[in-house]
Structure formats: C-alpha cells, structure tokens
Amino acid sequence: MSPTDYQRAAARTLPDIPHRDRLSMLALGVVGEWAEYEQALDAATKREEAGDVLWYLAGLCTMLGVDMAILAGVDHSKMLIVDALGDICETTKKHLYHGKDLNRIRILRGCAKIYAVVAMHEPIAEIMAANIDKLRKRWPDGFGVQG
Asked: Is the confidence at residue 126, as pLDDT, over 60?
C-alpha cells in the first residue's frame, strides 16, 4: 500500500468535528501513540501501534492539504523524535491557544521525522494495510465521536 492510498483510506475515519478540535486531537494523538509504540513489548503490538502513529500522521497531512507521500522524501539521517513531537505539538498549541498562524511546514517536518523512523524499523506498507483493516472493523460506517 502506498502512502497516498493509505492516506485516502484512513481519511474515511477522520472525525467530523470542528477544525480546532480535529487539529488538537491529531497532534496529541501522535504523541500518545508514539509513546505506546516505544513502550510495546512485542513485535505484533509494535506494528499495531505503528499503524496508529501513521493514522495520526495521515490525518495531519489531510488537514494540511498535502499528500502523505512527501513524508517519505525527507532526509532523516539526523533526526530526534523529541524534535518531531515538539514540531507538531508546540506548533499546534501556538496556533490554537496563542493566536499564531498555523506553521504547516513545521508540522509536516515533525510528521516526516516520525514517518521516517517508523519506516526505518517497520514494514510500512504492511502496517498501513493492517491498520486500514483494523479501522474498517472498528469504524465500518466512519468515525464517530464517543462521549
């Protein structure tokens, strides 16, 4: 599965909520899922969590109006995950709570860093396909907000 196909399929499960809430959910979700990925104790759990990380990255790319495939083209030889999480969360916080313009480039840079690390350690096409299968089972009619 290509990043572009994955993004298209994953977008079906993006919540239909206000822009501010969706951006906040996606930015925070990347951080939470990355923590779960790092803490996974076995390969199967690690792959499932990698799929969840990719879903949040795809969601951010969809919100920013870019093809997720651009994440794979970034030079990732000198990256730190903490920098990537900061790029996403700090930028989102400043936009939502401090009235700053949304710095799309910085968020995409963070997404690209995380994507690159997952791609270096996991079979990304397989993970994307497995994640879409999981999402279809969990949300057969699309995402719904649970209260």
From this structure: yes
Q: Encode pLDDT of 52-102 as tens digits.
A: 999 999 999 999 999 999 888 776 655 677 788 888 988 998 999 989 999
Number of Cα atoms under 13 Å in the Cβ half of residue 85:
12
What pTM was estimated for this model as a whole?
0.71
Distance of CA 111 to the CA centre of its chain: 7
Enumerate helices (H) and strands (E) in the chain, giving the number of each. Answer: 6, 0
The reported pLDDT for the residue numbered 146 is 63
Tokens of 77: 């030889």
CA distances from 139 to 3, 31, 120, 142 (A): 20, 22, 29, 5
Q: Give the contacts of 72 (CB within 8 A, at least 6 positions apart).
A: 3, 115, 116, 119
Torsion angles phi and psi, residue 66, rounded to 5: -125, 155
> Across the chain, which distance is largest between two alpha carbons, in Å?
42
**What type of residue sits at position 72?**
A
